[in-house]
Amino acid sequence: MMINWKKAIGLAAATAMLLPLAACGSDNASEGDSSDSGAITLSVWAPQEDQDGDNSWLSQVEKGFEKAHPEYKITWKNDVVSEGDASKQVQTDPSAAADVYMFASDQLGTFIKLGAIGELGTDAAKQIKEQDGSLEVDSVTGSDGKYYGVPYTDNTWFMYYNKAKFSDDDVKSLDTMLSKGVVSFPLADSWYLGGFYDGLTLFGEKGNDEKAGMVFPKDSADITTYLVNMAANPNFHNSADNSGLSEIQAGTADAFFSGSWSAADIKKALGDDMGVAQLPTFTVNGETKQMKSFAATKAAAYNPNAKNPKAAAQFAAYLGSTEAQKLHYTTRGIIPTDKSLASLTTDDAVAKAQSDTMANTAILQSGLAGMNDWWTPAETFGKAIVNKEVTADNAAAKTDAWVKSVGAYAE
């Protein structure tokens, strides 16, 4: 149901008290001349879905910002650019990029390198610390320790399952699930494969330490052997090209690993039997391991090359404000990161599973450029397991080769 903005504007105005940003980091003029006022133009990039219709989420937020900032007379220039495509567009010409844009946090290093993302000011930094958990804050923290971007939703994966097949206790253990039903998992997908290597760190605990690199747990070879055996289990199905979703819909699989984007399709297939949960544990050589998904966020940011950078910075913060996140959820079902909105999603099983995953069973997907070295080797390794090129006999040697090609073992 779409929220009535006139009723919401009181909250928006209250939230806006957090948003007027002081100067960048040190309260100087680096966020733009504080005299920004009067007639200005702000160019904005946002996904198509946020702009659909005359009363779209973006149009409502822009109207709310105008009311919260009467010192501006704003002409809006909105263009369609998805969060995942923002860095590609910026690389063409950073100075010609939008004043304000929405982006996936794994692109952060690219934006910083291009000088196309502005550091958050004092009030916006306070805002994200009050709204978000540590993983969300870390997702927009650069290698310099400074904050860039205001998170508004999480981007990760978790587990869907058929409640008619698995109990609440069953889904705590992947081994138990594999003994009772069919589990579909995208083992050859590099965004998912790393979830089994419990103890893996990607550029430090906060994902922003370039020197730390990718560090694998010492028992990675044993984990690989577990995956070889799992792949040979008749109750394990590799989900290739989202085949796991098709199997859930056809009733030939009982569990599937994906994100919030699959919720509507799975709900349609399973109805009241749809279960959603954070990731399960599994056992390697008698030791309990925790599956951990890669996790990132989607966030709003401003371009320091903007003609009116102060207003741009303020609007970026407003896009991730409590009220804007609330409106995003009520209009589009975009699950908020803001902890104060937890009551809004109390009855939303998908939102709870995503929140639990971010808090308990996830590691930060680094936004540093070095993260690019992960994807192809991990995909190749996952495919080799699925294709039985990696076996119990050669698991140690194959794992060593993979680890040494991208990182190192923990000391």
Q: What's this, in brief?
A:
The protein is α/β, with parallel strands linked by helices and 411 residues long. Helices cover 37% and strands 18% of the residues. The protein has 16 helices and 16 strands.
Describe this structure in words.
The protein is α/β, with parallel strands linked by helices and about 400 residues long. The protein has two domains: about 5-155 and about 295-360, D-Maltodextrin-Binding Protein, domain 2 (3-Layer(aba) Sandwich); about 160-295 and about 365-410, Periplasmic binding protein-like II (D-Maltodextrin-Binding Protein, domain 2, 3-Layer(aba) Sandwich). The chain is built from 16 helices and 16 strands. The chain has helices spanning about 5-15, 55-70, 85-90, 110-115, 120-130, 135-140, 175-180, 190-195, 220-230, 245-250, 265-270, 310-320, 320-330, 350-360, 370-385, 395-405; strands at about 40-45, 70-80, 100-105, 150-155, 160, 185, 200, 215, 235-240, 255-260, 275, 280-285, 285-290, 295-300, 360-365, 410. The strands form four sheets. Strands 1, 2, 3, 4, 14 and 15 form a six-stranded mixed β-sheet that branches. Helix 1 crosses helix 2 (about 55-70), helix 10 (about 245-250) runs parallel beside helix 11 (about 265-270) and helix 15 (about 370-385) runs antiparallel to helix 16. The chain is globular, with a radius of gyration of 22 Å. Mean pLDDT is about 90; it is low at about 1-35.
